[in-house]
């Protein structure tokens, strides 16, 4: 019912009954329950239908907040939304990911989370949950197995964070940043009505979140979408994971932002270098344009594998790829069309994300909303 009202509000109890197949008495009692929990409210709106006015319902959720925090090599982002998805805050701060231990990272994330919680409490909102996005392999229990660009192995992030926050009364989830970026695109992005999409992170690492038939696909242990570690060139530069010629090393952001395609370089350099590259390309600098065509073509070679395998309707490029998209996408598209057997690349479009930096943080908040929509409801009062 929450999902239906989220998508069709304002709507009446009769609309809900008709679409869910529940009888009207059941719908009325469930609506009463949801109103009591502050998740739904009646609006003054009525709709004349066969002469009988109906009270219309919308999602309420103003007493609640869903929070996402994104950990990246160069920044932390926190985003909070209310139950209806309205943005409550967006905070971004620089973070020297590779220079700190996972313990120090937990301290930094906990400090940011505490500030968000304090703000939400001041606004008299209850936090429904916190999801933390990590650029690495996150297993199905939320354990971080490997995050190469942060230098982490086997970190119980949810547990450590829960202890740092002294056992909060809401769930803490941990997920891969690309998975959460895909959830954000699916719920809030311009391809939200697309049930088959791939979101590609353009952070220090490159990962893919895969939504097929409307659902995030995680694979057997949760490790699907390691797009950045598809080998593009066996003789290519060594990747942060230690293997030669991974897509991340050949066509990742590190390659765009420096002549040395391999970390470490200072995370603080990434954004200025991307801006400089975009400035040079916009000014017609031949060397910059050639470099971007090369990177776009290599990216397209990787994307063609995804498109042949999955036939997505859209591939959405996020993060630092966005400011460079107008140069990368034409080259990538040409390569995808060349290498994909389906006519017209199976209808796949390659587009830049409109969600900006912090898509994974927004996806973290979206995952909390998904769990509420799936029936994990906050208690009354
Ligand atoms: Zn690799």
Structure commentary:
It is a single chain. By secondary structure, this protein is α/β, with parallel strands linked by helices. It contains 12 helices and 16 strands. It has helices at 2-8, 13-20, 24-36, 102-122, 157-164, 177-188, 247-251, 253-257, 270-282, 286-310, 325-339, 359-373, and strands spanning 11-12, 40-49, 52-59, 64-71, 75-81, 87-94, 126-134, 137-138, 144-147, 152-155, 172-176, 197-200, 208-212, 215-216, 314-317, 349-352. The strands form 4 sheets. Strands 6-5-4-7-11 form a 5-stranded mixed beta sheet, sandwiched between helices. A 5-stranded mixed beta sheet has the order 14-13-12-15-16. Strands 1-3-2 form a 3-stranded antiparallel beta sheet. A hairpin with a 5-residue loop joins strand 5 (75-81) and strand 6. Helix 10 packs across helix 11 (325-339). The longest helix has 25 residues, at 286-310. The two termini are 20 Å apart. It binds zinc ion. Zinc ion binds next to loops. The site of zinc ion has 6 residues, from loops.
């Amino acid at each position: 019912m929450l999902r239906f009202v989220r998508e069709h509000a304002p709507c009446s109890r009769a609309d809900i009954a008709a679409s869910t197949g529940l009888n009207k008495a059941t719908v009325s009692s469930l609506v009463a329950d949801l109103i009591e929990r502050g998740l739904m409210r009646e609006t003054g709106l009525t709709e004349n239908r066969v002469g009988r006015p109906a009270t219309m319902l919308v999602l309420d959720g103003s007493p609640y907040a869903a929070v996402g925090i994104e950990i990246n090599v160069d920044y932390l982002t926190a985003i909070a939304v209310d139950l209806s998805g309205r943005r409550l805050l967006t905070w971004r701060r620089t973070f020297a990911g590779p220079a700190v231990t996972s313990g120090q990272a937990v301290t930094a994330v906990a400090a940011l989370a505490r500030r968000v919680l304090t703000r939400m409490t001041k606004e008299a909102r209850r936090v429904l949950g916190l999801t933390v996005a990590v650029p690495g392999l996150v297993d199905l229990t939320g354990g971080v197995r490997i995050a190469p660009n942060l230098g982490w192995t086997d970190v119980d992030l949810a547990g450590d964070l829960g202890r740092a926050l002294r056992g909060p009364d809401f769930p803490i989830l941990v997920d891969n940043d690309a998975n959460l970026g895909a959830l954000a695109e699916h719920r809030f992005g311009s391809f939200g009505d697309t049930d088959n999409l791939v979101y590609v992170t353009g952070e220090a690492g490159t990962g893919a979140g895969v939504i097929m038939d409307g659902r995030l696909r995680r694979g057997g242990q949760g490790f699907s979408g390691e797009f950045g570690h598809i080998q593009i060139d066996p003789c290519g530069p060594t990747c942060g994971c230690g293997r030669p010629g991974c897509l991340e090393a050949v066509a990742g952001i590190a390659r765009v932002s420096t002549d040395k395609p391999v970390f470490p370089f200072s995370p603080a350099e990434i954004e200025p270098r991307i801006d400089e590259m975009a400035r040079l390309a916009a000014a017609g600098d031949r060397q910059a344009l050639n470099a971007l065509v090369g990177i776009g073509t290599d990216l397209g070679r990787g994307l063609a594998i995804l498109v042949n395998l999955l036939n997505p309707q859209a591939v959405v490029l996020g993060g630092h790829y966005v400011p460079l998209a107008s140069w990368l996408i034409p080259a990538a598209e040409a390569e995808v069309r060349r290498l994909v057997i389906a006519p017209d690349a199976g209808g796949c479009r390659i587009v830049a994300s409109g969600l900006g930096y912090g898509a994974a943080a927004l996806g973290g908040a979206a995952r909390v909303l998904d769990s509420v929509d799936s029936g994990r409801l906050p208690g009354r009062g």
